[in-house]
Design a protein that fits this description.
Elements (H helix, E strand, L loop, with lengths): L3 H17 L2 H26 L4 H33 L15 H28 L18 E4 L3 E2 L6 H14 L5 E2 L2 H10 L10 H11 L3 E10 L2 E10 L5 E9 L5 H16 L3 H6 L11 H15 L3 H14 L4 H13 L4 H13 L6 H14 L4 H14 L4 H13 L3 H13 L5 H12 L3 H14 L5 H12 L3 H9 L2 H4 L3 H17 L3 H17 L3 H18 L3 H14 L12 H10 L3 H14 L2 H4 L4 H12 L3 H15 L6 H10 L3 H13 L6 H22 L2 H14 L8 H16 L2
Parallel strand pairs: 1-3, 1-4, 2-4
Antiparallel strand pairs: 4-5, 5-6
């Protein structure tokens, strides 16, 4: 009889073995191990550039291994039970001998080891140019970046446009390769001229080979489109110019016309792999955007435009979007994106609204997500309705939580409503998804609004790193500096863009307008006038009469605010209006509110009211709701007419409704001062000084020095010597490099400071 301890040990061991071999536990462990294995194989495939069949082979091995593992678990469970009951099992025979843990796991390990050896051998043969898998570059048939001519696809389908469309699409794909260098269309045209051949001409494979022979090009790529029922067979090959031999050939099938785009992508990738491009770089290429259009070429133009826009090249993106909407006039998402680019470039409002309206008019042909995005943008730019825009953006995010368009545009609306935490959440999520460009821009502005300067500085650095060459990074680095009143740093950031801006009229206008505001803030009137003149010239070049009038009104305000010359200010704006009369412009492009503000400040409130009445008559109500400067103009008119309480109400609405954190404060300070309410005047002047905003330099250009000076005077009158000296000191520091014509004002303030300092 066995000792009781031995029986307990056997029983315990048997129970453990039974638990370990329970089918549910075996299946769970196998599933977990399989997921880990597949994740590892996929990571190695992406990082090392292994062929895709490695992952498929790994899945196959695991599928084969599943029944083996389950059967092994069953057999091991039977053995455990027999051991517990003392039953004698007959020795396993044949295949049954394989179903043990040692053999099953060992066999699985051997299978994956064999897969690794085959994958390594395949990759080595490919890279060394050995056998049928060797690339043309590795085998020495072609050199890396050796020029290749792409011939037109031979189209045998009924749709005569497919040949040209797919050829150009294939050209775009191949041009993304770091290994392939296509001979440019300009070089082809030059060769045709030398051959006394018509230009342009269909570039048949025969003609391509002849050009290649003349120019010493070693290879030609040609392709073919064959209809097979309702499907298409796409093929491409690399042909030796010397003897016409096929060096490499690939083919793909498209089930229908809608599948041509993904089939063409697969064809391009396969050919690039055969030529010798790394699988890592092939997989790194972005796919086409998933938006609705019946034109492949329009989709190509749209996709390239999106990539250029993300890099800050708005002008180039706009041209591609114009091409896309010309090819497919009902391409709603291209019209929507075009409106966004025009807005980013500061185009005429009428142009922006027209593009957004085109998109909105074609929304019925769109799937739900694209329709939501299109409606959301229209209700911001066309018929201004923030509530409907918010609802549409939220609906888009329910369908696609990672939609960059919805995340970005909804955050902008929330910013305008002062909901900075909600905007921050959306933008931070977008950045975590790898999105950048305008996402970084709006995150920076949102962080400044919240006073999170360190966070904004960090985001600027990330933007500079992620968007190398994107002018938005130094542009917003400058805005961040102005928010901190670090004007030398802002000037340095913006001066770094001058070379880039020389070839981009939109950026040139914006940059010189920014530098003009920066100079005015510091009392440098001559420099500001020079920068404004460049901005005026760029506005004329860009056919932006509204911008021309805005910059002219800023120059007029210099005469008014800094030189106290209202007659000169009025003469300047009259001259600008004679060059670009309001009647010659689309009503949406007429800067009624800004002109009314200027006339009111220049002592012409009647003319200001006439302009505002005309605005009400000719501008649609949906656009008037988006003109928050109207409140500022009404406040200026009320102030000029001595209606201080009306002025205060209008200026307060300007601030509350617009989302502009500094707008209206200086006007309220003026109105309270006129109403003999110095405490309220001080409160609003100080709010103007302390407002955190990325764009405050545009208000500071005319108001900051005056605010410092008035605060000094108000505190001096109150007898608060310390605060009077503080604000007088800020004024002197701000205008320490002011032009000579302003230095008498600086000397007067210095004298006040000396007198206050001498008092006890």
């Amino acid at each position: 009889m066995a000792p009781s301890g031995t029986v307990s040990a056997v029983s315990s061991g048997t129970e453990t073995a039974l638990r370990r071999t329970h089918p549910v536990r075996v299946l769970a462990l196998f599933t977990a191990a399989s997921l880990v294995m597949l994740a590892l194989v996929y990571l190695l495939m992406i990082k090392l550039g292994l062929p895709t069949w490695v992952f498929a082979a790994a899945v196959t091995l695991l599928v084969i291994g599943l029944p083996i593992i389950i059967l092994t678990g069953i057999k091991e469970r039977e053995r455990a039970r027999a051991h517990a009951t003392g039953t004698s099992l007959s020795p396993p025979r044949g295949m049954a001998r394989l179903f043990t843990w040692r053999r099953a796991l060992g066999g699985g390990g051997a299978a994956f080891a064999a897969l690794a050896i085959v994958a390594i051998a395949y990759t080595a043969m490919r890279l060394l140019g050995i056998g049928p898998v060797g690339t043309l570059v590795a085998s020495g048939v072609l050199k890396e970046r050796q020029p290749i001519i792409l011939a037109d696809f031979d189209n045998r389908a009924a749709d005569s446009t497919l040949g040209v469309t797919l050829t150009e699409a294939f050209r775009v794909d191949l041009s993304q390769s770091p290994t392939v260098q296509l001979v440019t269309s300009q070089a082809i045209a030059a060769a045709l001229l030398r051959m006394q051949h018509a230009v342009p001409a269909p570039l048949t494979p025969e003609l391509a080979r002849e050009i290649a022979q003349r120019d010493g090009v070693k290879a030609v790529v040609d392709g073919q489109i064959d209809p097979v029922g309702k499907s298409y067979l796409l093929s491409a090959r690399v042909v030796s110019v010397a003897d016409g031999a096929t060096l490499a050939a690939v083919r793909e099938t498209a089930a229908n016309e809608a599948e041509l785009i993904p089939a063409l992508d697969r064809l391009s990738r396969a050919l690039r792999e055969r030529i010798g491009e790394s699988l890592v770089t092939i997989r790194a290429n972005d796919p086409l955007e998933k938006v609705t259009t019946g034109s492949l070429e329009a989709l190509r133009q749209y996709t390239q435009a999106v990539r250029l826009a993300d890099a800050g090249s708005f002008e180039a993106a706009e041209q591609l979007l114009k091409a896309a909407t010309t090819i497919d006039t009902g391409f709603a998402m291209a019209w929507r994106k075009r409106a966004a680019m025009e807005n980013n470039m500061g185009a005429n409002t009428s142009q922006i609204v027209a593009s957004a309206t085109h998109a909105f008019a074609n929304r019925s042909r769109l799937p739900e997500l694209e329709r939501d995005l299109t409606e959301a943008y229209y209700y911001v730019t066309g018929d201004f309705d923030p509530a409907r825009a918010i609802a549409a953006n939220r609906a888009a995010l329910e369908l696609d939580p990672g939609s960059e368009i919805a995340l970005n545009n909804l955050s902008i609306i929330y910013q305008g409503q002062g909901q900075y935490a909600a905007a921050d959440s959306l933008l931070t999520h977008a950045v975590s998804l790898g999105q950048g460009g305008t996402i970084f821009v709006n995150l920076i502005t949102n962080q400044i609004y919240q006073g999170r300067i360190a966070a904004a500085e960090s985001t600027v650095q990330r933007y500079e790193h992620a968007g190398r060459g994107d002018p938005g990074a130094p542009l917003f680095a400058g805005y961040l500096s102005t928010a901190q009143m670090d004007y030398p740093a802002a000037e340095q950031s913006w001066n770094s863009l001058k070379d880039v801006a020389s070839t981009k009229p939109g950026l040139r206008e914006q940059l010189n307008g920014d530098l003009a505001a920066l100079s005015l803030t510091q009392g440098r009137l001559a420099a500001a006038s020079t920068y404004a003149a460049v901005a005026l010239s760029a506005a004329v070049e860009r056919q932006q009469p509204g911008d021309y009038l805005l910059f002219s009104s800023q120059l007029a305000r210099i005469d008014l605010r800094y030189r106290n010359q209202p007659a000169a200010a009025l003469a300047r704006i009259t001259s600008a209006l004679s060059r670009f009369p309001l009647a010659s412009m689309d009503p949406l492009d007429r800067p009624y509110s800004q002109l009314a503000m200027l006339y009111a400040e220049a002592g012409k409130p009647d003319e200001a009211r006439r302009l505002l009445s005309e605005n009400d008559r000719v501008v649609p109500a949906g656009r008037r709701k988006a003109d928050f400067d109207r409140f500022g103009a009404e406040g200026a008119v009320a102030l000029a007419e001595g209606r201080t309480q009306d002025a205060i109400a209008s200026f307060r609405s300007w601030h509350d409704e617009s989302g502009c954190v500094w707008c209206g404060f200086f006007g309220m300070g003026q109105a309270f001062q006129k109403a003999n309410q110095p405490d309220s005047a001080i409160a609003y002047y100080e709010r103007a000084v302390n407002a955190k905003a990325w764009n405050r330099v545009f208000g500071d250009a005319f108001d900051l020095a005056a605010t410092y000076q008035r605060l000094g005077e108000l505190y001096e009158a109150r007898g608060d010597r310390a605060k009077a000296l503080d604000y007088y000191g800020r004024f002197v520091d701000l205008w320490k490099t002011a032009d000579p014509e302003l230095q008498p004002i600086v000397r007067d303030v210095r004298a006040r400071m000396a007198r206050l300092s001498a008092e006890h």
